[in-house]
Design brief:
alpha/beta, four-stranded parallel beta sheet, 11 helices, binds adenosine-5'-triphosphate
């Protein structure tokens, strides 16, 4: 193998740059030419390629976002698009491709690998952590620490003037962010898509907590909770309690910022392992980390199988709310 490509796709996540850096530098040390593909899979169709050398990835390890940019690319979803993508990659002499992204990106990579002709290895990177085959995705740790910083600040004000706070964090279909942030931030309750939200129950909890003398009540709401986002849930609680409340939607701040040490290390390890896998002739796998060890999972399983939430953590939220 002489030439490999790398792209970042879907939602950007802190640590993607650290991963690109690792791929380029490990590629160079294996005497490979590394080509960056801009704006995710769109860059293949637009033939937007850029040669990456060791110096072109200097000073990016600490930066959020992605120097290759990212995009959502509909052409990837058709059979014809898939054939075109493979043809273009082959014409460019790209023998191996590393994709960095979340479950959508992994679906695209699965189809590319199945089409054949170019070896495909994927690295999981999304703030959502909703990828099977890895304990953590690149970007998750930074996102939860960013959200935690905001929640610590909210707790200061929430404790000074007793009223419930509903804080919405990202997570359209899964509650990984809400759960970890809820535990780390000492939330009184969390609302996630995986667990039915009972407005009556949470309303009673809030009422009793203030009666018991609690000074603050913070509820972490995943944006995709089936009872609605934080505004909707807060309003439904208000209709029962007629108690003044505040809502804070953290939104895209969770996507940005300098990656934590944990995300940089994970990104560096997985980027290096992806290059090594291509050099060894592997294709059709995602490289993740399970219990501290590198783990290769067939691409299809990464989105076809469901990663479970830690049920112990779920139970702990209630107990620790006190
Ligand atoms: P995040 O989890 O952060 O949103 P993601 O990788 O899941 O990241 P998506 O927008 O879902 O982000 O997917 C990124 C890209 O992957 C899409 O724009 C598309 O090009 C490709 N993709 C998604 N689903 C499929 C699919 N079923 N078949 C082929 N390609 C796909």
């Amino acid at each position: 193998m002489k030439r490999i490509g790398v792209l970042t796709s879907g939602g950007d996540a802190p640590g993607m740059n650290a991963c690109i850096r690792a791929i380029v530098r490990c590629g160079v040390s294996c005497k490979l030419e590394v080509v960056g593909i801009r704006r995710g899979y769109c860059g293949i169709f637009e033939e937007d390629f850029i040669k990456l050398g060791s110096r072109s990835v200097s000073n990016i390890i600490h930066r959020g976002g992605t120097i290759l940019e990212t995009a959502r690319c509909e052409e990837m979803k058709s059979r014809e698009g898939m054939r075109t993508a493979i043809e273009i990659l082959q014409r460019e002499g790209i023998e191996g491709l590393i994709t960095i992204g979340g479950d959508g990106t992994l679906r695209g990579a699965t189809k590319l690998a199945k089409a054949g002709g170019v070896k495909i290895i994927s690295v999981p990177s999304t703030i959502d952590n909703d990828v099977y085959g890895t304990d953590y995705t690149i970007g998750f740790d930074t996102a939860i620490n960013t959200a935690l910083d905001a929640i610590d600040k909210i707790r200061d004000t929430a404790g000074s003037l007793p009223r419930p706070f509903f804080v919405e964090v990202m997570g359209r279909s899964r509650g990984f962010i809400a759960l970890e942030v809820g535990i780390a931030g000492g939330a009184e309750d969390i609302m996630i898509p995986e667990v039915e939200t009972k407005i009556e129950e949470i309303s009673l909890d809030i009422k009793r907590s203030f009666e018991r003398g609690k000074k603050s009540f913070i509820v972490i709401v995943a944006e995709g909770d089936e009872a609605g986002g934080a505004f909707s849930i807060a309003q439904q609680v208000w209709e029962r309690l007629k108690l003044e409340y505040r809502v804070c939607v953290l939104g895209h701040v969770q996507r940005g910022g300098s990656p934590t040490a944990k995300d940089r290390v994970l990104a560096s390890k997985l980027g290096a392992a992806a290059v090594d896998a291509l050099v060894r002739g592997m294709s059709g796998y995602m490289v993740g980390e399970l219990k501290g060890e590198l783990a290769f999972t067939p691409l299809r399983e990464t989105w076809d199988k469901k990663k479970e939430l830690d049920s112990n953590l779920l139970q702990l939220v209630k107990v620790l709310a006190g």
